[in-house]
Amino acid sequence: MTASTSRQHGILLATTGVLVLSFDALLIRLAQADGTDVGVWRGMLVLLSAGSICLVRRRRIRWPDSRRLWLAALAATLLYGLSSALFVLSVSHTQVANTVVILASSPLFAAAISWLLFRESTSRRTLMSILVAITGVLCVFYSSLGQAGQLGDLLALLLAVVMAAALTLLRRVPELPRLPLVAGSGLVTALICLPFATPFALEPASYAWLSLMGLLQMPLASLLVFSATRHLPSAEVSLFLLIETVLGPVWVWWALGEALPGPTLLGGALIIGAIAFNATLSLRRQRRGRMARSEEANLG
């Protein structure tokens, strides 16, 4: 697979994965359950779904064959399981729009972690987009100071850091099998939430929404986003999470009528502009590169 083809494949995986992921907050709201209860069922059902597939395909999965890879797999599993729990708890304590807009800061942390630990450079174009996105995050955070949703906003900020770390690690160890990591992360999420939950005291309708989330939506979205890190830098994969920043609150507003606060709308507009700017320049650069290679081939 050429570098250009690999990049296009990564963009397709990341875009599709985040589109599926964007329904996450709506399903949490529809479940009408405490965040810890959602976390337990979400985690166990993800474990059941992804784990069952792992058992069926166990001979085709390339399992880690060294201590370094096993340690990396354990770290990635813990980080992603923690991020899933933080997302559920954040959405339970603040407005959906606030959670997903603050999560949009993950590219900044991914770029910082990649540079500090691995000296992986980030293009000026991506850095500019990240800075604009962070401005949008600050708009949301400033509006929540002293309000009831401040705890949820703080959890969302921690979520952005943890998600960035998970994606950066996966980028550095592309040989890790993604599906077992998804299954293991479900167990981590459930264990984190279990001490505070009463998972068998929910309304019957709640279990239907939780089943859709845990058995289909989350395993599929996680697998696609994880796989994209094989083809794109972690900061750029994180940038695709900005799609959820827009669509997540829209689905909740459309289905449940949850209002979009003014500062959150402003922050979202800045973030959309950032991702559009980055994507447009990236496509132009790719097009110029293909044209240059074509001209060289013709001259040769």
Summarize the structure.
The chain is mostly helical and 300 residues long.
Topology as H/E string? HHHHHHHHHHHHH
Query: Largest sheet, if any?
Result: none
Query: What is the count of structural domains?
Result: 1
Determine the fraction of residues in helical runs and give it as a percent range. over 70%
Q: Quick one: overall form?
A: globular
Uncertain stretches: none
Number of helices: 13
Could you give the distance between the termini?
Answer: 23 Å
Could you report the average pLDDT, rounded to the nearest whole number? 82
Number of β-strand runs: 0
Supply Rg.
Answer: 19 Å
Structural class: mainly alpha
Q: Beta-sheet strand percentage? A: under 5%
Report what the structure shows.
This protein has one domain. Helices cover 81% and strands 0% of the residues. The protein has 13 helices and no strands. α3 crosses α10 and α8 crosses α11. The longest helix is centred in the last third of the chain and has 38 residues. The chain is globular.
